[in-house]
């Protein structure tokens, strides 16, 4: 156990929300020397911040009665931690200028997290949504809430560079992909937050997956507890995604994909083992920086399409392959192709 170092950890401040659930707010400073910090707090909970340094303020709930023993699901396809986030970037057009997404849309869609039985790690840059999500998860014991500073994420550190690219009047405009640079940064943060969750050992599960906050919007009205289960045919050496379009990977160029907003796989859900997720994040980050250096940029799904094309593979090695789940391969309770893998994994809890 690494002992608490007072030069890096400020005194915790006790907080209580209206539900009388108390949390400890721990501002954690960067450590330029050590790669890992261990902070011992009440109830014997230990938080580890490992890998690339960043400033986090972490809310850790007291343990509640009636917990599902995570050891009891180890080695099963339910041993899965779900990672999600909500960054408040205000309202923005989606697809076309008059189709506007608001924070109200997302707060409605996030209701499904009340019924998810998997362990959940939730990131946000707005304390309001810590309170909101803790209300959603009040009866779900395995939940961690993390208040993050955007500027500590590489995905947001490149915001000025992306803004400069999008401000060029000749750059193709797609709503919100290349119209809102903050939105682009949010999409790039998905894999970074997933990797950070793995590094921090937030929950001791066999698998981790990223799920968009609004992913299960079509069942937000259903008040049924459910699990996300790893598919039986999942290849542990890969990252699972939904293949939305049967696109040409042999002849299409990365530049065309990014500038023409061409689609192949969805970015709403990424599933993998801890080791593969870390490799995948590094591979993805390098690709983002590469295209940024070329003066082109788009959201995560277009970066993924670009990096897996034949031309890009010939120039840059791929360490982690994608396992593509194609809509129609098996029956699911939702017919939206973008959310196919999530519904392959969706299982209503009969209890």
TrEMBL record:
The chain crosses the membrane at residues 36-54. Pfam families: HtrL_YibB. This is Uncharacterized protein LOC111110322. It comes from Crassostrea virginica. Keywords: Membrane, Transmembrane, Transmembrane helix. InterPro entries: WlaTC/HtrL_glycosyltransf.
């Amino acid at each position: 156990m690494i002992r608490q170092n007072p030069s890096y950890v400020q005194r915790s401040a006790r907080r209580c929300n209206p539900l009388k659930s108390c949390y400890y707010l721990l501002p954690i400073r960067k450590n330029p020397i050590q790669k890992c910090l261990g902070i011992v707090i009440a109830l014997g909970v230990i938080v580890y911040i490992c890998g690339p340094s960043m400033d986090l303020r972490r809310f850790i709930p007291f343990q509640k009665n009636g917990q599902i023993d995570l050891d009891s699901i180890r080695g099963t396809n339910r041993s899965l931690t779900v990672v999600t986030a909500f960054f408040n970037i205000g309202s923005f057009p989606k697809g076309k200028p008059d189709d506007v997404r608001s924070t109200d849309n997302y707060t409605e869609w996030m209701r499904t997290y009340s019924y998810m039985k998997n362990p959940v790690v939730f990131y946000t840059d707005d304390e309001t949504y810590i309170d909101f999500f803790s209300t959603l998860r009040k009866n779900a014991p395995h939940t961690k809430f993390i208040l993050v500073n955007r500027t500590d994420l590489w995905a947001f550190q490149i915001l000025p560079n992306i803004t400069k690219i999008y401000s060029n009047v000749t750059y193709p405009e797609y709503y919100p992909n290349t119209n809102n640079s903050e939105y682009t940064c949010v999409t790039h943060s998905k894999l970074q937050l997933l990797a950070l969750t793995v590094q921090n050992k937030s929950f001791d599960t066999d698998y981790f997956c990223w799920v968009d906050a609004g992913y299960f919007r079509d069942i937000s009205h259903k008040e049924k507890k459910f699990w996300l289960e790893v598919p039986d045919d999942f290849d542990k050496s890969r990252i699972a995604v939904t293949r939305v379009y049967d696109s040409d990977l042999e002849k299409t160029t990365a530049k065309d994909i990014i500038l023409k907003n061409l689609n192949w796989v969805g970015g709403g859900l990424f599933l993998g083992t801890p080791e593969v997720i870390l490799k995948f994040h590094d591979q993805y980050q390098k690709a983002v920086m590469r295209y940024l250096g070329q003066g082109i940029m788009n959201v995560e799904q277009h970066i993924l399409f670009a990096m897996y094309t034949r031309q890009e593979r010939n120039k840059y090695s791929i360490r982690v392959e994608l396992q593509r789940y194609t809509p129609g391969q098996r029956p699911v309770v939702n017919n939206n192709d973008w959310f196919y893998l999530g519904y392959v994994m969706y299982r209503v809890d009969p209890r």
